[in-house]
Structures are given as structure tokens and as C-alpha cells.
Amino acid sequence: MTPFSTILTHPGSAHKDEFLACCVLLATQPVTIFRREPTDADLTDAAVAVVDVGHAHDPALNNFDHHQLPDDAAPTCSLSLVLQALGLYEDAKAFCDWLEPAEWFDCRGPNATARWLGVKRDAINQLYSPIDGTLLRRFAAANEHREGEPLWAMMQLIGADLLDYLRSLRQRLTFIGKHAEVWTLDELTDSDGKVPAVLFLPRTEPLPEEPSAGLDRYVMEQGLDDRVVAIVSPDRRSVGYGLSKHRDHPRLDFTKISNEPDVHFAHLRGFVAKTTATDPQRLRKLLKIAGV
Q1: Which residues of 15-27 are buried (b: 16+ CB within 10 A; e: fewer)?
Q2: What is the residue-averaged pLDDT of the chain?
Q3: What letter does residue 276 receive in the DSSP assignment?
């Protein structure tokens, strides 16, 4: 992305897409945000990042508006354009389940978004967060936001967290791909011949801070969602492993292993358990016992 010294977005009411786009830009350059209509000089000056206004999309000039796109274009918002310029959009679409609904909401409105999601229109209002409302109202209330102000600092944190999440998750998925194994549980084969699978991540040195992080997303990315019934990953609090049902899969109930001598925790709802066992054969045995 071309360096810039100012962020400019539209005045008036604020929306989630330009707010988040400004957050991401702040995480790359800690500059002042101005909320006003752009001039022709702004649009031709790459030092001014123009967001969600100006009817121009030109990453080389740091212009990130989507309102000039045709009505039949895929839903795209200013945040989408900023993430594209950073080379993170495809990962964001894959890892941030909220991004595509945000694009739809901004481009198509709540009614069309509800139909696209297959939910009742009331569900859009039921998912409203006062956190969103307060941040957007405070953002809209001033024409400038500068370093040192609480809202500016919060926006920078939001942008930094989003960028860190996207970049670290891709690294994490690469790590999982190098170390994870897919086990089949032949003992739990369905009547239709479908063989359940388990994603197993062995212990490594050093052990990641959150050993289970990214495993669910890895299953989805690898197209294993219809096969994997459980995930087994290192327990960061002990020498053993955690066993969890993938997406609450009905083929397992970990309360069935609660009395096993090497199982020190099994949730009463049966979706997770912890064991001191480290031998893969023993772990597979526990999974077999937990089968439904």
C-alpha cells in the first residue's frame, strides 16, 4: 500500500464498513482522520487515503470507494477494498465469517441481507450490539479524530487485532498442515458406510500458546467438515490432550469416558474431555468408547 499521511472519510452518519476500513488503515499508519467531502486535490494525492467517498477506487492513489460500482457487482464495501490493497482480502473472506454479511448489509441493506442469510428480517435487529452503536455514534460526532483521543486509540487497536488475526491465522494454518494427522475411526462406520474421521495435532516443541487455535478453521479449509467428528489437540495445562466434538457432532459423547482412569475431566454435556493419555492408540481407544 502506498504510504499516506491522512485518512479522509465522509461526514454525517457513520457505518461499520468505513469505520473498520479506517481502523485497519490506522493500524498501518497512525495518522489523523478527517470526516468531510473530498476535493479533487484529495483524490489525486496518494498521501490522503480517501475512504467510502469520492466515487473512485484506485489503490495506487489510496482511493477506496465502492459507491460507483454497478448495481449488479458483487457486494463490496470500503473495508473490502482496503483489505484487497493489503493482500488480505481472500484470507479475510475465508476466516472472518462476519465480512460477507457486512458487505451485503452495506451494499444491499437489511432486507436483502436477511433474505440472503435465510433469516427473518427481525433477526438483523436482534443481533444489534450497543458496542457497535456507541463506537459509530462517537465516530460520527466529530469531524476529526487524532492520536491521543480514546476513540482513535480504540480504532487503532481494532485494526491491529484484525490484521494480527489474519496474518497469524494463516501462519497457524500452515503450521497445522505440517503437523496434523487425519485419523479414521473404522469402528464407528455409519450404516451407509461413511467412516468418521478425527483431526489429531501432536505435541510439538515449543508448544503453541493456544494449541487448539485454528483447528476448526483448518478442517473447513481442507474440505473435511463432512468427515471430521472430533478434534484431538495438546492440552496446554497438562502433558495430555483435549478431546472435543467438531461442531457438536452427534457421533460422540465424552461423558462415556468420564470414569476412565486417565480422564480427569469430561464435561457434563459431553462435548469435551481432558486426558493425561499421550499414546495415540490410547487416544483412539477413548474415542471409540465415546462413540454413539
Answers
A1: bbbbbbbbbbbbb
A2: 94
A3: -
The mean pLDDT value for 14-21 works out to 97
How far apart CA 178 and CA 167 sit, in angstroms, is 17
**pTM score of the predicted model:** 0.83
Cell of 165: 488475526
C-alpha cell at 17: 464498513
The fold for domain 180-289 equals Diaminopimelate Epimerase; Chain A, domain 1 (3.10.310)
Parse the chain into domains and list their residue ranges: 6-170, 180-289
Using DSSP's 3-state secondary structure scheme, residue 158 falls into helix
**What's residue 152's pLDDT?**
98
What are the distances in angstroms from CA 34 to CA 5, 9, 133? 11, 6, 20
CA of 257: how far to CAs of 71, 124, 155, 189, 288, in Å? Answer: 56, 41, 46, 20, 10
CA distance 106 to 89: 17
- What's the CA gap between 91 and 10, in Å, rounded? 27
Q: How far is residue 221's CA from residue 240's CA, in Å, rounded to a whole number?
A: 27
| For residue 210, pLDDT beyond 90 | no
- The conformational region for residue 12 under phi > 0 = left, psi -120 to 50 = alpha, else beta, is left
